[in-house]
Design brief:
The structure holds 3 protein chains of 3 kinds.
Chain A lengths: L13 E3 L3 E5 L3 H12 L3 E5 L5 H12 L5 E4 L2 E7 L6 E6 L4 E4 L3 E4 L3 E4 L12 E3 H10 L6 E2 L2 E2 L2 E5 L8 H16 L4 E6 L9 H10 L3 E4 L5 E5 L2 E7 L11 E6 L1 E4 L2 E4 L3 H8 L26 E3 L9 H19 L3 E3 L4 E4 L9 H5 L5 E5 L18 E5 L9 H5 L5 E4 L7
Chain B lengths: L1 E5 L2 H8 L4 E5 L4 H4 L5 H17 L5 E5 L7 H5 L2 H5 L3 E4 L3 H10 L5 E3 L1 E11 L2 E6 L15 H4 L26 H12 L14 H4 L16
Parallel strand pairs in B: 2-3, 2-4, 4-5
Antiparallel strand pairs in B: 1-6, 6-7
Chain C lengths: L5 E6 L3 H7 L18 E6 L7 H9 L4 E7 L9 H18 L7 E6 L4 H18 L15
Helix pairs in contact in C: 1-4, 2-3
Classes of the chains: A alpha/beta, B alpha/beta, C alpha/beta.
């Protein structure tokens, strides 16, 4: 039986690494990451699209602390990216049109997300809709033991989850916390409609139990329930899915004074544009795709580019903080040695055979291939020429290559070979 | 570029029946780029043809070559020695390459392995669409860069037939109405007035293919 | 007894580790049913996406009675889409082979996980049975006698 073994003939190429990281986005995620990196001795530059007043506070705080060098460029945006891990060339344009080129070793996208208010499935004429942040404000501002909305007392509140968001934990957290207060302090009859309830966060199960003990009613649905107006009040009908047999499931109708909805979470504006500039793929929902959600969560498909925080997936602040620290840890461990040994297994293009069909740059899952000009002019291939510097051809960057061999197999001219490959096929 | 599609392998096998030793010649240009006749396709087809022949208890010897282009006589002549030693040539080049070989090797059997389908654009990886029919007198300046000869099912020259629905052609339901595309393009260029310029009826018989095979002669270039 | 020659292209992320599991390293499982496979040739690849369509055909041409590709489950490819490219190439090869009359069972792809030694054994066992019924590959090189009685 042929054994598999990776080539151990030795390292082909070593690159130098500067302790220099570019972070896209000056929000909570970007700032947490920047501080963690700077504490680890890495030079950090943050570029932030907005004016971000919160960054002024951070900057002044950082100036007072230890030897932390974080450069912050506000009203700036990444417009172009060339190069690869270790030697990126990032073109940043400021609002006044001036551009500057940065050369980080590593880039991190921490561009966050956005929220919209979309009352899905609810009749638009209904006035009694609140969103979770509004309800929180209402609760916080209330005095006494009765809650009022627009002068009306609230006695029946229904939370409607999972219509617009999928798998967002902080919706659950907010709903449970608010439901408990509404039930215990304001004596409301609280119902929660959901597909399932996410409690996989610290104290989640406890919170849920507390809500149940408070008398909060939970109704699970498979099909989105039917909202309608009944005597001017919002009413919803759905089968009671707690009974496993469909025949036993009676239809329940709940009438409430107000329906509370979560805000819809969406990828930040221009996320898809940024993905194109960074040449990293988008995943489910249009957020940046993580390389492997189980254990390579903050890596993108491209070596040297990371994605962290809500731009990867909206999460609550503790998780975002943890992710930022994990990202910092990974980056520091890579940058600290000062050099990086490329894998001995990588793809190589025979420039004499390359037909410039563009198959490999399109196909490479790790964006490691570009079409490079080898000479100043585009001169057609000279037959039998020993001088293969006179043409365009595809170029696989060894440091960015993962050695998967997809390009090797797909090249129609069989112009690519996998250096360091141990298997023989014919 | 020229786009071609490999012929069904049963058809190729039937053409090769009388022959036991062939040259399977790809082409490094258009058919490589559209993945129908490049070096890889040559290797794949060779393996398949040999296996089909083996199944019948016989052998088929195949020499595999992929010259840079088959449509230039010098490239074609590079194959001379090999061609002399085989029974037939199976060429995966476009129709031009096949005929170049035929003209330069008067006593060699040259068999086409692909169908030359159209001149087209790569609209996405693995997807090619017809764009040009070599009508001989390009009117793209008047139509905002969208060709009604290649892309309109009725080859209308002065506006839509009126049968399109939501921008889709009434004849070919999977095709965009070319005149809708022309209108949209001219509008985004701010050149809608061009639509009022009459394009005269095409002279297929004098400026296009209906006058017989065409020829270009550059006196200044001839050696 | 006809021992069909099987060439198994194994992805190093799934097929290879699974193949290394089958030889009794898995506790609590009766692996006595795994047949003796003297004619199994494993060809490791970094990713199933490395396998070229022509490799599948030349393996059959040069005497394999059956070709198997072991790749990661779809959506689980370490390199995002290598296993899907492999599947497309297999489908293309399969169409060509069908047109020259080769039996479909001689070329197959199997998706499995890194620790799925059991599935690896099962698929191989079933394939051996299938190929025994089909008999030796008549499409391979005429001079080749490998795997024939």
């Amino acid at each position: 039986m042929t054994q598999s073994n990776s080539d151990v003939r030795g390292v082909i190429k070593t690159i130098l690494l500067k302790q220099d990281v570019l972070i896209l986005g000056g929000g909570f995620s970007g700032i947490s990451l920047a501080e963690a990196l700077a504490r680890g001795g890495v030079d950090v530059t943050i570029i932030e699209r907005g004016s971000a007043k919160q960054l002024d506070e951070i900057t002044s705080r950082l100036k007072k602390s230890e030897n932390i060098t974080i450069t912050i460029l506000t009203q700036s945006e990444l417009v172009d990216l060339q190069g690869h891990f270790g030697s990126f060339r990032a073109k940043v344009r400021k609002n006044d049109g001036e551009t500057v080129e940065l050369t980080p070793a590593i880039i991190v996208a921490a561009t966050g997300y956005q929220t919209l208010r979309q009352p899905q499935g609810i009749p638009e004429t209904a006035a009694d809709i609140l969103y979770l942040p509004d309800m929180k404000k209402l609760i916080d501002a209330a005095a006494g033991e009765k809650l009022f909305l627009n002068g009306k007392p609230l006695s029946a509140v229904t939370f409607f989850l999972d219509a617009v968001n999928d798998d967002i934990k902080f919706d659950s957290i907010n709903v449970l916390e608010q439901a408990i207060v509404l039930g215990s302090r304001f004596n409301c009859r609280v119902s929660v409609l959901c597909r399932d309830l996410k409690v996989s966060f610290d104290g989640g199960e406890r919170l849920y139990r507390q809500a149940r003990e408070e008398g909060v009613l939970f109704f699970k649905y498979n099909e989105p329930p039917d909202f309608h107006l009944e005597n001017g009040k919002l009413s919803v009908s759905l089968p009671d899915a707690t009974f496993p047999n469909n025949e036993d499931q009676k239809e329940i109708t709940l009438t409430s004074d107000v329906i509370v909805l979560p805000e819809t979470c969406l990828p930040g504006t221009k996320t898809d544009q940024l993905a194109g500039i960074l040449r990293i793929p988008l995943g489910k929902g249009g957020y940046f795709m993580d390389d492997n959600p189980q254990f390579l969560r903050i890596r993108s498909a491209r070596r040297g580019i990371y994605v962290t925080g809500a731009c990867r997936f909206p999460q609550d602040l503790t998780e975002t903080q943890r992710e930022a620290e994990a990202t910092a840890q990974e980056i520091i461990s890579i940058l600290l040695p000062g050099t990086y040994d490329c894998s001995p297994v990588f793809a190589e293009v025979d420039t004499k055979k390359c037909a410039l069909c563009y198959t490999c740059p399109r196909l490479c899952p790790h964006s490691a291939i570009t079409i490079e000009k080898y000479a100043k002019q585009n001169i057609y291939r000279i037959l039998n020429s020993e001088d293969d510097s006179m043409q365009y051809a595809a170029w696989v960057e060894p440091v960015a290559c993962y050695g998967c061999g997809l390009c090797v197999a797909e090249c129609p001219a069989q112009a690519i070979s996998l250096r360091g490959e141990s298997a023989h096929f014919n | 570029m020229i786009k071609a599609e490999q012929k069904p392998v049963e058809e190729i096998i039937s053409y090769l029946e009388p022959y036991n030793k062939i040259l399977l010649s790809g082409c490094g240009a258009c058919v490589t780029v559209c993945h129908s006749g490049g070096e890889k396709e040559v290797a794949l087809l060779a393996s398949c043809l040999k296996m089909a022949r083996n199944n019948g208890g016989k052998n088929l010897e195949i020499i595999e070559m992929t010259p840079a282009r088959q449509c230039e006589p010098e490239f074609a002549l590079e194959l001379a020695e090999i061609i002399a030693g085989v029974d037939a040539v199976l060429s995966l080049s476009c129709g031009v390459g096949v005929q170049t070989l035929a003209r330069n090797f008067k006593s060699a059997v040259i068999i086409p392995g692909v169908n030359t389908v159209f001149m087209g654009e790569t609209t996405a990886h693995g997807i090619w669409e017809e764009r040009c029919q070599a009508c001989g007198n390009c009117i793209l300046e008047k139509t905002g860069g969208v060709c009604p000869i290649a892309r309109c099912a009725k080859q209308l020259l002065n506006g839509p037939c009126g049968g399109s629905s939501q921008g889709i052609c009434e004849i070919k339901r999977d095709t965009d109405c070319a005149w809708q595309l022309i209108y949209d393009r001219l509008k985004s260029l701010g050149q809608l007035t061009k639509l009022s310029e009459m394009i005269p009826a095409k002279n297929w018989g004098t400026e296009s293919r209906d006058k017989g095979p065409r020829k270009i002669v550059r006196e200044d270039l001839t050696i | 007894m006809f021992n069909p020659k099987i060439v198994a292209f194994c992805c190093e992320q799934s097929g290879v580790p699974a193949s290394e599991m089958r030889l009794g390293e898995v506790a609590d499982l009766d692996l006595k049913s795994v047949p003796n496979l003297p004619n199994l040739e494993i060809r490791p690849v970094p990713c199933a996406g490395r396998i070229e369509t022509v490799h599948l055909l030349t393996a059959l041409e040069q005497g394999a009675d059956g070709v198997l590709v072991f790749a990661c489950h779809e959506e689980n490819c370490q390199y995002r889409r290598g296993n899907i490219r492999a599947k497309s190439r297999l489908l293309y090869a399969g169409t060509m082979l069908e047109r020259i009359g080769m039996e479909k069972a001689r070329l197959e792809i199997c998706n499995l996980a890194t620790n799925d030694g059991v599935k690896f054994s099962k698929v191989l066992t079933e394939k051996v049975e299938q190929l025994r019924k089909l008999g030796p590959n008549k499409f391979s090189k005429i001079s080749s006698e490998v795997g024939k009685e």
